[in-house]
Specification:
Largest sheet: 7 strands, mixed
CATH class: Alpha Beta
Distance between the termini: 43 Å
Strand content: 5-15%
CATH architecture: 3-Layer(aba) Sandwich
Shape: globular
Helix content: 25-40%
Radius of gyration: 18 Å
Mean pLDDT: 90
Bound molecules: S-adenosylmethionine
Number of domains: 1
CATH topology: Rossmann fold
């Protein structure tokens, strides 16, 4: 199915490309699946149990090799866990959407800005995405039991806190800061041969020493970001409010 989709949509023979820079999706998938990186990644992944994967911010994988490898990882996870997988990036082209559908990935049709309340154990996969997406996911699931349903595979929160100014943390990371007390990070070993594709990524879980104190869970206004600093592409409907 992958081969058929690539040939139809990208109009190139799948196995013909020898150049890494132009590597087809199939070659990315093959290489990643056999890599030491994936072996180690898998060992971390299998510590969890999920019922669905939500992937935001893959980027244009038709033109960008990094995104193509990140999509390959998504497919490997989907196949390994044998669960439903949903994808959204506002920059996807129609061709990319068709390609994902061919891979049996469901496309999310509206820009939810990461504000998705989940109903079952869910992995959010967001390679190199703006931290405000993580902050929005936490807000949407900000309840004592609900928050334990989510695992965020994204840029390390600890690193974001270390590398960002106080102003950015105060403005953009309110729920990430509030979650620190019950956050556990499991770092992804970045041993893939391209070092800028899966770098700085961690699994983030929110299950350790969950506070019983209701005050932690109350007073949770919807995040609003300053226009000049906001990094996510916002939903036009929500901007109009
Ligand atoms: C820094 S790029 C990362 C792209 C790719 N994953 C990579 O590592 O090269 C951030 C991505 O987040 C996407 N993004 C921005 N706002 C988004 C939103 N509201 N929902 C989902 N994805 C979003 C952008 O379109 C972009 O593709």
């Amino acid at each position: 199915m992958y081969i058929h989709a690539i040939m139809a949509l990208w109009g190139q023979p799948v196995l013909a490309s020898n150049s890494r820079a132009e590597g087809s999706f199939q070659s990315c998938l093959d290489e990643l699946s056999l890599s030491e990186f994936y072996e180690k990644f898998n060992a971390s992944l299998l510590r969890f149990s999920f019922q669905e994967i939500i992937c935001y911010g893959l980027g244009n994988f038709q033109s960008c090799l990094n995104s193509r490898y990140q999509l390959a990882l998504l497919i490997l996870m989907k196949n390994k866990l044998d669960i439903k997988c949903y994808c959204y990036d506002p920059v996807f082209t129609q061709e990319e959407i068709c390609f994902l559908e061919d891979l049996e990935i469901c496309i999310i049709r509206r820009n939810e800005e990461g504000k998705r309340r989940v109903t079952s154990s869910t992995l959010f996969y967001m390679p190199h995405c703006p931290h405000t997406l993580s902050n929005n996911i936490l807000w949407a699931n900000w309840e004592k039991t609900q928050i334990q349903n989510i695992v965020i595979l994204a840029n390390s929160f600890q690193m974001i806190f270390t590398n960002s100014t106080k102003k950015v943390v105060d403005n953009d990371c309110n729920y990430m800061t509030r979650a620190l007390q019950f956050l556990s990070e499991i770092e992804v070993d970045n041993c893939f041969r391209f070092c800028d594709i899966f770098n700085d990524m961690s699994f983030h879980t929110f299950r350790k020493n969950i506070p019983e104190d209701n005050s932690v869970w109350e007073n949770c206004p919807e995040p609003k970001y300053k226009e000049e600093t906001v990094e996510i592409i916002q939903n036009i409907e929500s901007l109009a409010i």
